[in-house]
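Notes, p. 3: input format for complexes.
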Amino acid sequence: MNAAFPMSDQPLKLLVAAPRGFCAGVDRAIEIVELALTRYGTPVYVRHEIVHNRYVVDGLKAKGAVFVDELDEVPDGMPVIFSAHGVPKSVPEKASVRGLNWLDATCPLVSKVHRQAERQVKAGRHILFIGHEGHPEVIGTLGQVVEGSMTLVESLDDVAQFTPPPGRELAYLTQTTLSVDDTAAIIAALKSRFPDIVGPKAEDICYATSNRQAAVKEIAPQCQLVLVIGAPNSSNSMRLFEVAERAGSRSMLIQRADDIDPAWLDNDVAVLGITAGASAPERLVHEVIDRLGELRSVRVEQIVTARETVTFKLPQQLVD
Ligand code: SF4
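Output follows (320 residues plus iron/sulfur cluster):
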């Protein structure tokens, strides 16, 4: 216990959100790297962080994965894997031209958005893509269609300022890891401004993102502090942080237990929530609970708002 911050004798109640942590797309991407290492030996190259989590990336590096920014860094003849966020079409095309043995770990739910983008452009529509500029998933999705056929929309202001290309019907699609509430507001604004705009039949925000946000909404109003375990460049972790704050709790984004400042656990904190972004392993959740237990006596309660059974098939090259 830190003497500078006298703690309450009352046990700290920990509300642990469920679902939390790894989703089926992240599980699959990590398994692809591990299977590739077993099948092809070391090193196996991975273009970009396979998922946005340093602990996961460091663990795979230790097993022989080499992470690179661009294909040019992959030597001829070596296997290369594309990350769960997806890549522009030009990347596998370039890999094929070089004769590289490439494997695609793009989450099937991201690939589904890619195919929708192709279909809408083929139908002659201009797409408004709701997402965050610079995120790898956005770069990958924009790169599925001819330049100029998609416009990125990040806010209600962007909707208000958008000038449609003359004579073109409109469609919208979304990044998979957005805030459910913010996205609903942007879609409503799009539909109000462009009543004929075409959208996907079902929500593009993925089940894992929606479920984790719903779980945080459930616990946050009961908490004085919510710890979100995840990386600052992980979109769905950042959204969990925002959802917790909007639901009325102070929130902190942490990557590991070491990031916990004992001063956060002052006497005003009687109930503390814990969740983890879709790229954060369960092991880090246990590490955080253990650390909190060192700082105060704790009582752990899990709040389950949904059960997840989604799994995705592996690429054929790895199961033959
Ligand atoms: S967060 Fe959703 S879209 Fe992203 S990898 Fe997981 S399941 Fe796929």
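The chain is about 40% helix and 20% strand.
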